[in-house]
């Protein structure tokens, strides 16, 4: 799938049932990491109600193929003066074509247009397609020593929910 074969648009309510399916497809990549392989079997991390809340706020975008079928999404919410990315997923068959990058860039542009100073997220520290991907897009790992209470708490809650201790990190990008 080449980068010219998709476009990014605001998600619509009729897209909501497709988003968990996309997320489960994207999670199949975690089968490559034994400690995280369970993610390929888990349900989606965001509920349809959470996606709907993001859509209502105008903070959920889908990447669609030329035929109009969603093959990736980014759901976010405003947290204070930050845009916080809750989930970015691209169907496994569409990965590597630039759709994830396009979704992140779109979200960053929207955050800037809304007067937000930063875009934040949490991700896997050691998965080669997570932290390094975001670093290439200008995100930096945040240490808990930088007075980032909200982000540190997000990581802590993810670990309480069952993710391996120390596997996650918070990242931030100034926009």
Automatic annotation (TrEMBL):
Domain of life where this protein originates: Bacteria
SUPFAM superfamilies, A to Z: Acyl-CoA N-acyltransferases (Nat) (SSF55729)
A GO MF label: acyltransferase activity, transferring groups other than amino-acyl groups
Classification via Gene3D superfamilies: 3.40.630.30
Protein keywords: Acyltransferase, Transferase
PANTHER family from the UniProt entry: PEPTIDYL-LYSINE N-ACETYLTRANSFERASE YJAB
Name of this chain's protein: Acetyltransferase, GNAT family
Annotated organism of origin: Acetobacter tropicalis
């Amino acid at each position: 799938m080449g980068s010219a074969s998709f476009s990014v648009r605001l998600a619509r309510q009729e897209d909501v049932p497709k988003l968990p399916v996309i997320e489960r497809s994207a999670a199949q990549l975690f089968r490559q990491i034994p400690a995280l392989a369970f993610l390929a079997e888990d349900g989606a991390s965001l509920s349809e109600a959470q996606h709907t809340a993001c859509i209502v706020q105008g903070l959920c975008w889908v990447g669609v193929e030329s035929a109009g079928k969603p093959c990736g999404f980014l759901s976010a919410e405003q947290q204070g003066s930050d845009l916080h990315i809750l989930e970015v997923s691209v169907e496994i068959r569409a990965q590597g074509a630039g759709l994830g990058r396009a979704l992140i860039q779109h979200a960053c542009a929207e955050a800037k247009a809304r007067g937000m100073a930063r875009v934040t997220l949490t991700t896997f520290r050691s998965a080669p397609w997570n932290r390094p991907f975001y670093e290439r897009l200008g995100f930096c790992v945040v240490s808990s020593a930088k007075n980032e209470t909200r982000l540190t708490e997000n990581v802590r809650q993810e670990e309480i929910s069952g993710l391996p201790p120390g596997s996650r990190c918070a990242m931030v990008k100034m926009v």
